[in-house]
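Exercise: predict the fold of this chain.
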Amino acid sequence: MTLPVLYSLRNCPYAMRARLAIYASGQQVHIRDLVLSNKPAELLAASPKATVPVLVIKANTVSEQCQVIDESLAIMLWAFSQTDPNDYLHNQSTTALSEMLALITQFDTEFKGLLEQYRCSKRYHEPTLTQDRQACEQYLTELESRLSQHQFLMSNKPSLLDLALVPFIRQFARVERQWYLQAPYPKLRQWLNHYLQSKMFTKVMAKYPLWIELKQDHLFGSTH
């Protein structure tokens, strides 16, 4: 069976969350690393959006069409719908998935914009830096509260929610590093460090040669 192809960008948080889910689910894909300034024609043909991540699931027969998934959350859900050996979807709960999806949507639609403003304020030395950071903090407070109740964001085991938010909290933590290290979010720091120091994150952040240069696919994913 032909493996799916994942178009990815190493430091893009959306591509990062897709890779995290593919690895955690035990799926394998052929990864094609790229830079957005030089997009391969194959990516543009697969998805007119021309952004990463894009997962192309090749047809098994001539009569079938390729399936293209070009939203990071949809790729995560696809991966765990194939295999979920560690129950990242919390299938024993009837409400967990909807709760996770609601919070992920909130972060994608609200927190992400505030985070970008905060990052810009730091980069361009805007006088609104503190104000922009505080706008983000209301969301961090919610996560800190959750982590005060259990080890991960949903329970004492990792979930889809954890993997979806890690790349964005990582971005936040890097804006004002010294402030972050002393901020009143000890549980959040512990949670983030757990992921950043994990074998999974090391594998997910591995650097591959740009696909457009050699047109050579590389195997990505877990074998567990």
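Check your answer against the key: The chain has a mean pLDDT of 95.
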